[in-house]
Structures are given as structure tokens and as C-alpha cells.
Design brief:
The protein has 14 helices and 22 strands. The chain is α/β, with parallel strands linked by helices and 425 residues long. Helix 9 runs antiparallel to helix 10. The longest helix has 18 residues. The chain is globular.
Length: 425
């Protein structure tokens, strides 16, 4: 059993999609390939970047992309063995980095054992494990089952079935006891019954971290009603790149005030959201920005706003990837990522240091200080973050402040195309 390093609050999360990162085959392999060591090799870089947690997208046995699970109790052979995963988790723990594992409890792949039995029996055995009714599917199964969002390669589970509950809860306990993980990301948490999420929390025990994938909805209410620690903040993800591209910083500021402001109606004040500029499902921030220079402003907002910032592997090097070219374009092999320019890496690592050490950025306070279409300043306790995405200098009311990026005293004017984090003198 691995030593478990459990933390309920992180400074920075680093996200990796292992099947892509390791250059694995596109479909399931019959033999094991020990590739997880490639992730262990970059632990020093992850630590240097400033992350204290790593989120690993699917590592369990699957047919193709990882979310079409075949076996919840086995490591994907394309990545390695159970021993390889145990060694990877232990290596992260040795450096003080917690490990969050992606978990899929809503659906499985068509090669999932009980579903294979269902098909072989003509729709009789294990029927109550899934949401099955009369009809047919595009695969010609002779019965109809509920797919995930219309994708018939993903079979939704019947979570009302006690046998399914036992299987899934047993898998979670297995990951904790066998691999020593510290938390899970709940894939499509917005589709999971809240009572089931509470069951998962109880099974995991105290100190185990849960972050739910949420796209829309009331983030704060979902956290309160399920008791999980965090949800993915897609509202501010969209707000950051959209505000920068449209030259309308009112958009992202409105979202931050709506979610985190000091007003009593703020939806997520005092709650922790997982914030990001890109991930394994969306175009890379450097690709989507109209003006590439704005990538520094994007990360300044990301790290200075309330919540926990998450950096997707490769984006610290301005890696590109367009969703229109398919998911593979978003999930490159690490050896193919151009890491020759370390300027953005250095800037993000400085922001991570501030996120870890500055009380204002650790707390929940948020207040708007200055706002125009192209300039924004907001306060977090004694800390102020400011961005100017316009070409011309802008005067901001930030007297008696010193830059935490380069140590220079603020002189009242933010140059064009600049961003900074200040502390009051």
C-alpha cells in the first residue's frame, strides 16, 4: 500500500492526460507497456512549476480514450501495470505532490465485463446493471440501452442497482488502498445523483478530495448539496478567453463578482472552484487567443482570482491544440511538445509561488478596483492583480504598491500589453 498524502486544499493543480502524454496506442493493447515512468520523469519540472497536486486523466483499463472503461480494477495496459501506477503515486508523494485520479462512474465502455455478458445473453444477464429497454442500437444489439449523451460506445450505468453501487464503491476503495491516491475527479458529475456522490464521499473517508466536472449550473449549490470540495469552473474558463478576444474585460469581471464577490448574493463565495484556461476537452489557450501576447494576462487572471488554478500539461510552454482538429490535437505526446521557450513557464511558476505564499491570494476576498474594456484591476486582501490588454498606457488607482513579479514600485501607470500582481507597501 502506498503512503497517502491527503490534502483538502491545493495551491496549484497540474493536469496530465496520460494516454496522450505517454504516446500510447489509440486502442487497447493486449500486452502491457510500462509508460507511466515518462510522467515520473517530469516530476521535478512539475514541482518547479509550483504544483502541489497532479490530476491524472483516465489510467484504468479502457478501449480507446479512457472514458470507455473496460475494468475499474485494472490499469490500462497501454500505460503499464498496477505496480507502475503504485510507483508513480509514491514518486509524487515523495515530492509532496498529491495525486487526483479521474473517475468515471456514470458510464462504461462496451467491453466492460457485465455489458459483454449482457450482449452475449441477448439482453438478459446483467440487464439491471444498465438502463435497458426494448428496441435496438446502432450496433444491432437487439435491445436498447441508454448511451451517454448519444454516444453509444459509452453505456450508462444503472446507479439505482445496489450491485452496481457495490461495484463502484469497491473500485474507489480499491484505488485508495492499492494505489494511495488522494482524491478523484468525478467525470460528468452533473449527471451523477447527489445521493450517489454522498455515498462515494462516505466510502472514501475523511480527508479525501473530490472535484466534480460541472459545465453549467449553480456551482455553489452543487458543492453545498453534495459536500464535495470543488467543481470545474467553466464559466470563468470561457470568460477569460472571451473577454481577452473581444476586448471586453467586463465579461470576466462580471463572472468573478457574480461568483466570488463580497455581496451576499455571490454564488460561490467561500467555496473553492477549480479554475483553468484549457484542459483535455477544449482548445489550448494559446491557440484560441487572437493576440498571443494576452496569454500572460490570461494566466495572471487565472492565478489571482479566487479558487485553485489548474495548468494543463504543455500549456506552460504555450503548446497549441485546436479542438476542431479532434481530441488527439489536445492530448499530444510529451516528447512532441516544444519546450525550448521557457518564458511562460517562468512566469507561471512565479504566479504559483505567489498563490502559495501570499495570504491575499489564499483567502476568499474579491473586489473590483478598476475596469474598462481593456484594463482591469481587482483586489484580494492586500494583493492587487492588474492587466492592461490595450496598446496604450492606463492610469490605475494603485498607489503605494510594489510589484511581486519584478519588485519594482508601481508608479501609477500600467504600460500597454502588461500585467502584474502588486502588494500594498
Amino acid at each position: 500500500m502506498c503512503y497517502t498524502l491527503r490534502m483538502k486544499k491545493f495551491s496549484v493543480v497540474y493536469q496530465i492526460y496520460p494516454l496522450g502524454f505517454c504516446g500510447a496506442e489509440k486502442t487497447a493493447s493486449e500486452e502491457a507497456h510500462s509508460r507511466l515512468g515518462a510522467i515520473a520523469d517530469i516530476i521535478p519540472d512539475i514541482k518547479r512549476l509550483g504544483a502541489d497536486a497532479v490530476l491524472l486523466n483516465p489510467v484504468l483499463s479502457s478501449t480507446s480514450h479512457g472514458y470507455d472503461t473496460e475494468d475499474l480494477f485494472a490499469v490500462d495496459r497501454r500505460l503499464g501495470t498496477a505496480d507502475d501506477l503504485r510507483a508513480l503515486v509514491a514518486a509524487f508523494h515523495k515530492e509532496g505532490i498529491s495525486v487526483i485520479l479521474d473517475s468515471v462512474f456514470d458510464h462504461v465502455g462496451r467491453n466492460f465485463g457485465p455489458f459483454v455478458r449482457l450482449r452475449a445473453s441477448g439482453g438478459r444477464e446483467y440487464r439491471d446493471w444498465f438502463i435497458v429497454r426494448d428496441g435496438n442500437t446502432p450496433y444491432g444489439d437487439g435491445f436498447y440501452y441508454e448511451p451517454w449523451e448519444g454516444h453509444f460506445e459509452l453505456v450508462r450505468l444503472n446507479l439505482d442497482n445496489p450491485a452496481v453501487q457495490e461495484h463502484l464503491l469497491g473500485a474507489l476503495k480499491f484505488w485508495i488502498s492499492e494505489f494511495g491516491i488522494d482524491g478523484v475527479r468525478l467525470d460528468v458529475a452533473y449527471m451523477l445523483p447527489k445521493w450517489f456522490i454522498k455515498m462515494l464521499r462516505q466510502a472514501a473517508g475523511d480527508g479525501f478530495y473530490f472535484v466534480g466536472e460541472m459545465i453549467h449550473g449553480d456551482y455553489g449549490r452543487f458543492i453545498d448539496e453534495t459536500g464535495i470540495d470543488s467543481v470545474t469552473d467553466y464559466e470563468c474558463y470561457k470568460g477569460i478567453y472571451s473577454a481577452l478576444n473581444s476586448r471586453n474585460l467586463f465579461e470576466i469581471e462580471h463572472s468573478m463578482t457574480r461568483l466570488f464577490g463580497n455581496e451576499p448574493w455571490a454564488l460561490c463565495r467561500g467555496r473553492d472552484l477549480l479554475n483553468f484556461t484549457d484542459n483535455h476537452d477544449v482548445s489550448r489557450i494559446y491557440t484560441i487567443l487572437n493576440d498571443k501576447r494576452d496569454v500572460y494576462a490570461a494566466y495572471t487572471i487565472l492565478f489571482a482570482m479566487p479558487g485553485t488554478p489548474c495548468v494543463y500539461y504543455g500549456s506552460e510552454y504555450a503548446c497549441e491544440g485546436d479542438k476542431r482538429n479532434g481530441d488527439a490535437a489536445l492530448r499530444p505526446c510529451w516528447r512532441d511538445v516544444d519546450k525550448s521557450d521557457g518564458r511562460l513557464f517562468g512566469y507561471i511558476s512565479r504566479l504559483a509561488e505567489l498563490k502559495r505564499t501570499q495570504a491575499g491570494l489564499i483567502g476568499t476576498d474579491y473586489r473590483k478596483i478598476f475596469l474598462t474594456n481593456t484594463a482591469l484591476a481587482f483586489g484580494r486582501g492586500e494583493i492587487t492583480a492588474a492587466v492592461n490588454i490595450g496598446e496604450q498606457p492606463v492610469a490605475m488607482p494603485l498607489e503605494n504598491c510594489v510589484s511581486l513579479i519584478d519588485g519594482r514600485e508601481y508608479k501609477g501607470v500600467m504600460p500597454g500589453k502588461s500585467c502584474d500582481v502588486f502588494r500594498r507597501l
